[in-house]
């Protein structure tokens, strides 16, 4: 998951990508919030939405991955298993979806379907894991 702040426009967005243990896409979400949040707040909101989305997909044992050490440590300290936390830095498919939230009105969700704007990245990731393509 990742967040983006569109300070000049007064809103923010999040991107969430849910994969199985083979790297295959299970669901994705791009969501816009019509109010400004700070960088840490939008990262925390992305974490919250990511966990809720995973649970709505029926996934109970999840690994939450984000690029904010502060948020990841905070979530790890306040949530018991089966929620695992992993810190990952860099531009990802979630970052792209968070930025995509700037051009949508509310929320776009893909379930068992790959968002076109990250399709090539998902395929590269799956192939690099040695799994079959999506």
Automatic annotation (TrEMBL):
<dbReference type="InterPro" id="IPR044730">
    <property type="entry name" value="RNase_H-like_dom_plant"/>
</dbReference>
<dbReference type="InterPro" id="IPR002156">
    <property type="entry name" value="RNaseH_domain"/>
</dbReference>
<dbReference type="InterPro" id="IPR053151">
    <property type="entry name" value="RNase_H-like"/>
</dbReference>
<dbReference type="Pfam" id="PF13456">
    <property type="entry name" value="RVT_3"/>
</dbReference>
<dbReference type="InterPro" id="IPR012337">
    <property type="entry name" value="RNaseH-like_sf"/>
</dbReference>
<dbReference type="GO" id="GO:0004523">
    <property type="term" value="F:RNA-DNA hybrid ribonuclease activity"/>
</dbReference>
<protein>
    <recommendedName>
        <fullName>RNase H type-1 domain-containing protein</fullName>
    </recommendedName>
</protein>
<dbReference type="GO" id="GO:0003676">
    <property type="term" value="F:nucleic acid binding"/>
</dbReference>
<dbReference type="InterPro" id="IPR036397">
    <property type="entry name" value="RNaseH_sf"/>
</dbReference>
<feature type="domain" description="RNase H type-1">
    <location>
        <begin position="2"/>
        <end position="79"/>
    </location>
</feature>
